[in-house]
Amino acid sequence: MESISGAGILFDVHSLYARLQTLSDKRKRRGVRYSLELVLMIILLAKTCGESHPSGLAEWAKHRSAQLVDWFKLKRQKMPHHMIYRRILAEIVNVEELERMSSAYLSGMSKFGKQVLVAIDGKVLRGTLDDKQHGTYLLAAYLPREGIVLMELAIEGKGSEIPAAPLILKSLDLREKVVMGDALHTQRAVSIQIVEAGGEYLWFAKGNQPELEENIRLWFEPEVQPLPGMNFPPKDFETARQTNKGHSRLETRTLTVSSQLKDFLDWPHLEQVFKLERRFVSHKTGEVHEQIVYGLTSLSREEITPQKLLEMTRSYWGIENGLHYRRDVTLREDYTRLTKGRAGQAMACLNNLILGTLLSKKKYRTIPTARRYFSAHPAEALDLFLRLCEHPILVIMRLPITTIGDNIR
Length: 409
Fold this sequence. Notes:
Structural class: alpha+beta
């Protein structure tokens, strides 16, 4: 919010606050004390400033009621009770609408180039599990390098990731994207779907595709010495290597690729196969661990170098430490009990919005660092969601200060 001669403010109609105002509200208008966008905005602000649980969100708003009343020009001084936040998330929010809005908002914050990696992976919201271990399971499509969740879909459980993957990919624009998942998603049908949609795939071959894995493994085995008079054509192996230090260990990753199996293996749109070797050496104990996995991709040698392919396989695990870890540990997602309705999924979507928005700034070294800063500067957190100027073309409108709390549709 920025004053213009005291007569109005700059309000980005692409901002998150403006998009929240487009969500439908199931409540009857009469008797509504707190608008849907206000409650959701308080959740986003409080979590960005360091709170995690509904009771903490309510306390945060209570202690800053004077600021919130002034910012949003509210008629009521009293802030919502923590049960209101729970009820809004569980019963009032249309989660599908919230997911679509979040996807559109986060997608518009970055300019994507070619070969953008889309990682797909599932997650259980442990804070939603009951005594019988029934809870909310989600499948996410995530951009590891950008820190953006493109879409997240509720699924029945870990085993239902396979039929859910085509559904979530169908809702995305896969042109110039490279879809990567763990070995569970190495399926023929989804490989065809991705390529026909204009994208590429990058899979690992493991136990769920035993024949495919065995054929690739044998190809990378040391060559048998030919009998006298026999000649084997040379293999087109190319190798890339990368070494990283961190977490008290030295990691060396070596990727070897080949294009010669694309006409022999029965796999749709196959261009290259690869062997990925990982070697870990502990600085403290000197203990060595080695791991070898095999994979395949529809990207040709002309489209991607072995070094870039190696970097892409490493980037995939960003969905674990860049998304799941941050939501579980930093935003305390798994420690927040939200067992009613679809409150867990709605809160997960809001967590995605917070992470994507903070990471888009590229200003803070870590998410905890950003939260500590905004805890001391809540007005700047509000500005982050009200006036996020990251778009090629901004539509700016001047509004009277007295109407900032009204719906803009």
